[in-house]
Amino acid sequence: MKSKLKLGDFILLLGTVAVFLLSIFLWIFIMVNDQYFSHVEQTSSVTEHSRSRIVYNLYIPTSSYSYQNGQLYRLYDAKKNLPIEFIRELKNTKYQGVEKISTSPKKYEQLLNNHDNLQLTFPNEVSMNLFTKTSPQKNEPKFRRVFVTASDRYLYLGNDRTYTIYRVNFTKADFSRLRKYARNAHGRSPVELVRLKDGYEVFYTKLGHWRVYSYLTNSQTDSYFVSRLFGTSNVTSSSNKKGWTTYALNYYTKLRVPDAKSKHHNFLYSRYEKQKSESTSKRQLDSVEYVHKLGLSEQDLRYFDTVGNSVSYINYIEGIPVFLDSHNPQVKATFLQDEVELAFNNIDLQIPIPFDGQMRTLPTSGEVMKKMLNVGLKRSEIQRVIVAYRVEQDNTRNNLINLVPIYYVKAYNQWKSVVEWAKQDPNALAKLHQAMAKEEK
Fold first, then answer.
1. Per-residue pLDDT tens for 119-145?
2. Which ranges does the record mark as transmembrane (predicted)?
3. Domains of the chain
4. pLDDT value, residue 92
5. Given pLDDT bands bounded at 50, 70 and 90, which one contains residue 35?
6. What is the pTM of this model?
């Protein structure tokens, strides 16, 4: 009996030592592979469980239009958001197939002028594969405009740049509620379609009276983004002479942040990794994962633009984009040959302040276009003319901002306000024009 007890004690001791040694081994393994485990934890949930939800949150049409008595109107309703309703109904559809039916400019303009269709637009081209859950392909259908017809059996997709029309057939769809919301939309602004470099742009044809909105904001700390992007271990930091701090996970992964006293909010995350020649939808999907990884509020964040290998996102308030820092979007993901760069602003719009009656009167889009031509912009290089919000600091409180509506123009692949373009040196504009001409050859 005594020997049995001694044998049992020995086995128990041996097991305890084995468990202890195993725990030390696992702890060391996890510590030296923190980047790997952090990557698995942060990306697996996106790719496996919530990628589709995030795509539907970020990739929403930003404007809707319909004809009434021969006049095209931009539609808006504060209570019934048409683009969100479209995405909601799109989730419940069952696709039968997509077919290219025309590349004729004449037929494209006929579709644009069809008074029976409801039009919804994205700010730039998106891929059909984002919504159909099919594998990304190089020759995927890309479109900017959606035409919801009177039938639930099909709708049309339009690519403004190439005049391509796609027909999407459904085995199950119901857009009746969307059509009802469009018919009863309270906000209606008369507009016209004008052909610019990248496609058809909506021009406001009457003086517009736009509201000035106010928001309480929140700025996330450096440690928040270090934790989101790196995890919590193996992070070293070094201060830059020019008021920047650089956090490094290793030689390949860095985060540059501005000094808190500088009042700047532009961060830059960079990660060295070999890039392949990817499709449009692959870059857009990859950027979705990076945006989600940042942990910024996705409630009002929307896809905004694609320029070359860069995909950008911006906040939309009442259907209008918000430039938080002069002319930069909230997030811009750039996929270089050997590196991924994620430039972002750490400000979140938190609490809207009740409207106090402030208004701004803006000229017609045509008048803005004339002004841009007069300051030296080439019409052939003007890509978009839009109304957007510029952020102004409210003097009554540190974290209170005002969103002031002004015109922004995209030309030479750059976004600037009308005031900024007007201050450009004509010689500098001429050089931009020459550079774009060489790039397009």
1. 999 999 998 877 765 555 556 789 999
2. 12-32
3. 55-190 (no CATH), 215-352 (3.30.310.160), 357-440 (no CATH)
4. 83
5. very low
6. 0.84
